[in-house]
Structures are given as structure tokens and as C-alpha cells.
Design brief:
The chain has one domain. A two-stranded antiparallel ribbon has the order 1-2. It is built from 9 helices and 2 strands; from the N terminus they run ααααααββααα. A hairpin with a 3-residue loop joins strand 1 and strand 2. Helix 2 packs antiparallel against helix 3. By secondary structure, it is mainly alpha-helical.
Length: 275
């Protein structure tokens, strides 16, 4: 399983990084839209939708909303910045709801609620990454830093949790996650992010702001992961799909990104507005 997991990660990571650094923003937007479409298909399973025609219609409707979002991004990036601030703030509300769910004080959302949540999760993720790539100075760097933080936190948590995990993070939501894994993953992500900044030497905010932003992105990645875990647990599903050997579905791989990307984009937009 570990061998398949690593091979899949290397293959997809190479494709993604090649597109980030060598292709225009439009090409990256198309690639990410394809991945988002697959994730939306998997999300319909979390909603409990079984009929293929209904699932296709929901995915098509979701993808159709990305077209005007692209138009707004091109015509009025400032409007997108405001939207990113709102989405980043919305994830604080998700964190509060997950805390209540972990204590048994809240119920999982209905199918209709999950549909709305799915759009609010996937569309802003796509928009945030595209915004970073096309609107921010050193756009390819910021997207790479985002992925380095998310992947570093995920990989570090996997190995640290296996080695030292003793104290459960949220057993009602995801029994396998531990505080030791979260802290180990956070440390690994910060090391990866710091190494990337030192290696490429891009224009970045002041060290204190940049460190705070990276910590917020790492924390967001944990929240995004827990949200999908909560929905999968409601449906008694282990993986969102099986398209990625060793990883499960696309949604299983981007769940951490769903909160991390808007937080990163909002932070970069805020920094840009003050420079």
C-alpha cells in the first residue's frame, strides 16, 4: 500500500508541479477543474445520491459555476479577494461546528446541506489556487508553497501518528488522527515551507506574517481533512473513491487543501493590498 501511495503521489505531483511552473494559468485552471469535477462526483456519494443521472447533473451544475467564477477573476480580481476573505472566515465556523460534533453536541448535515457544503468547499478551493497562480506575484511559488505545506502536514502526520500517536484528536470524527500526528505534521510542513522560501528566495511578507500565514494554512489543512472525515463517517464510507491507488479518491487527496487554499489566498491577497 505504501509503495502504491508513493508512486501515485510522485506521478500526480510531477504532473501538477509541471503545470504550475510551465503552463499558463488557464491550463492550470482546466486541470484543476477536471480534478474538482471528479471530487464533486465523489461528493455526491457522500450526499447519498445513487442515481447516475442525478450525479452527472449535479457535477455538471457544479462545473458550470466555475465559468462565471473565472470571468469574475479576470474582470475583477478585487471582488475575488473579498470572496476569499469571506470563505476563510467561513472555515472558522466549520471549526466551531466540528468541535461541537466531536463533543456529540451537533448532528451531521442532511443531504441537501451536504450539497451546499460541497459547492462551498470545492469551488473556492479551485478559485483560490487559480487566483494565487494568476494574480499574485511569484504565483507559481505561492501555489507550490501551498502544496508543500499541505503535503508536508499530511505526510508528517501520517508518520508521526504511526510512531508516536497516543492522544486522539477527535475520535468521534476520525479515530485514527492524533495530536502527536498533527504536531509532527505541522513541524514537517513548516520545515518544508521554510526550505522552499530559502531555496527560491521570492518576494514574501515579513517573517512574522509569513510564519503566521503558514501556521494558519497548516491548521486549515487539518480542519478540511476533519470535515471530509465527518461526512464519510456519516455515510460509513472509508474512502471517497478508488481512482488513486494507495490514496482512495480525489476528494481524499484534496480534503486538506479545501480549507488551506482559501486561507493561503486570503493571506496573500491581504499582504498584496498593503504593499
Amino acid at each position: 500500500m505504501l509503495r502504491a501511495r508513493v508512486a501515485t503521489a510522485v506521478l500526480l505531483g510531477s504532473l501538477l508541479m509541471g503545470t504550475v511552473w510551465l503552463a499558463p494559468t488557464g491550463a492550470l485552471a482546466l486541470l484543476l477543474a477536471g480534478l474538482a469535477g471528479i471530487a464533486a462526483w465523489e461528493w455526491t456519494a457522500l450526499m447519498g445520491v445513487q442515481a447516475p443521472a442525478a450525479r452527472v447533473a449535479l457535477v455538471a451544475g457544479f462545473l458550470a459555476t466555475l465559468v462565471p467564477a473565472w470571468g469574475v477573476l479576470v474582470a475583477s480580481p478585487a471582488s475575488v479577494q473579498v470572496g476569499l476573505y469571506l470563505v476563510a472566515a467561513l472555515w472558522l465556523g466549520v471549526l466551531g461546528w466540528l468541535g461541537r460534533l466531536a463533543r456529540g453536541e451537533a448532528a451531521a448535515p442532511s443531504a441537501a446541506g451536504a450539497a451546499v457544503i460541497g459547492w462551498l468547499v470545492l469551488a473556492p478551493t479551485w478559485l483560490a489556487v487559480v487566483y494565487l497562480h494568476g494574480q499574485a506575484p511569484w504565483g507559481a511559488f505561492w501555489v507550490t508553497l501551498l502544496f508543500a505545506l499541505v503535503w508536508g502536514a499530511d505526510s508528517g502526520a501520517y508518520f508521526a501518528g504511526r510512531a508516536w500517536g497516543r492522544h486522539r484528536l477527535a475520535p468521534r470524527i476520525s479515530p485514527g488522527k492524533s495530536w502527536e500526528g498533527v504536531l509532527g505534521g505541522g513541524a514537517a510542513a513548516l520545515l518544508a515551507g521554510g526550505a522552499l522560501v530559502g531555496l527560491l528566495g521570492p518576494a514574501t511578507p515579513a517573517p512574522l506574517f509569513l510564519t503566521g500565514l503558514m501556521v494558519a494554512v497548516i491548521a486549515g489543512s487539518v480542519v478540511g481533512d476533519l470535515l471530509e472525515s465527518a461526512l464519510k463517517r456519516q455515510r460509513s464510507i472509508k474512502d471517497s473513491g478508488g481512482i488513486l491507488p494507495g490514496h482512495g479518491g480525489v476528494l481524499d487527496r484534496i480534503d486538506s487543501l479545501t480549507a488551506a487554499a482559501p486561507i493561503m489566498a486570503a493571506g496573500v491577497a491581504w499582504w498584496q493590498s498593503g504593499t
